[in-house]
Amino acid sequence: LQSIASADMDLNQLEAFLTAQTKKQGGITSDQAAVIAKFWKNHRIKIHESLINQSRWDNVLKNMNWRVDLKAQSRHIDQINTPVAIVEMELGKNEQESEFLCLEFDEAKVSQMLKKLSEIEESMTSL
């Protein structure tokens, strides 16, 4: 079952794998193969999601909201009435309570962030 789950086998791969296991000396019986196949068909998605959640190092981005506001107060008078982006991110794992991170970006920081995200996208596309 560990080999089936780690390879995330589809039904054709599963059938070939189980057939090979029944023919192998000291392998499984055809009845055992049928039970394993039925179990995998019924629980494949849950098992796959569980393995993914176990392999994550840390929190994941669950949700993100944003808005644009105008600064009403500032230490410097020239920053009043300038637009700022407020970004709220919900971070966490499925079974745990979420954490919220709130960020404020001026126009230059939004441009910098978009540039970095574009670089990430290009890097992912090339892979």
Automatic annotation (TrEMBL):
Domain COMM as annotated: residue spans: 60-127
Domain of life, source organism: Eukaryota
Biological process (GO), any one: positive regulation of protein ubiquitination
Stored Pfam families: COMM_domain (PF07258), COMMD1_N (PF17221)
InterPro entries: COMM, COMMD1_N, Murr1
Gene Ontology cellular component annotations, sorted alphabetically: endosome
Similarity remark: Belongs to the COMM domain-containing protein 1 family.
Name listed for the protein in its UniProt record: COMM domain-containing protein 1
Organism of derivation: Cariama cristata (Red-legged seriema)
Upper taxonomic lineage: Eukaryota, Metazoa, Chordata, Craniata, Vertebrata
